[in-house]
Amino acid sequence: MVFGNCGVLHCPSLEGKGYVEMTSIDADTSHDIVEAVSGKGGRYLEAQIQGSKTQAEEGTLILLAAGDRSLFDDCQSCFKAMSKNSFYLGDIGNASKMNAVLQVVGGVSLAALAEGLALADRAGLSQADLLDVLALTPLASPHLILKGRAMIESSYSTHQPLTHMQKDLKLALGLGDALEQSLPLTATTNEIFKHAKRLGYANHDVAAVYIRARF
């Protein structure tokens, strides 16, 4: 959409125009885009989204933005229509980095939940009881309980595609490599999600990671 045939850069001039990138990309790619867009006189904002398809329909996403502050302000009416909160994080790349960090926490948590449910089942414990107990502990979160129920019921309708989570984990690992930050749990979790993709669950919900843990 930016560098390809008939992309944004084919416009003779971007004076008075702004481009908002709302897909998950790495910080380096975002820097390449801002250089190209600003080189033609345009403004650029990276806007990473935290949330699911259901949250998008409800307008309760979390939006992480970085780049041109004036463009961020100009887009507030659009952001408010789809999100309950939008955060301006400063320099280009910061939104991509923050999104990667949050996806690390989310992905590792889901893999841990899947393994816990699989272990409970193998030990002859009720998975429903496990979720009931979990809901009363400090570890509880609406997201984990929702995904836990989906795992128990084998309900993998796509709210957040598994392949998107795996892509974000890969981006996080790339960031870790660039910063020489060890991410052993993220690396293992990424392999778990990759295996679930190979089993044919790439376009199912992230809860389908349970298939990998269970079998």
From TrEMBL:
GO molecular function: DNA binding; NAD binding; NADP binding; nucleosome binding
UniProt-listed Pfam families: NAD_binding_11, NAD_binding_2
A single GO BP: transcription elongation-coupled chromatin remodeling
GO cellular component annotations of the record: chromatin
Top-level taxon: Eukaryota
Domain 3-hydroxyisobutyrate dehydrogenase-like NAD-binding: start-end pairs: 93-210
UniProt domain 6-phosphogluconate dehydrogenase NADP-binding: residue ranges: 15-90
Family (UniProt): Belongs to the HIBADH-related family. NP60 subfamily.
Name the record gives this protein: Putative oxidoreductase GLYR1-like
Organism in which the protein naturally occurs: Papilio xuthus (Asian swallowtail butterfly)
Organism placement in taxonomy: Eukaryota, Metazoa, Ecdysozoa, Arthropoda, Hexapoda
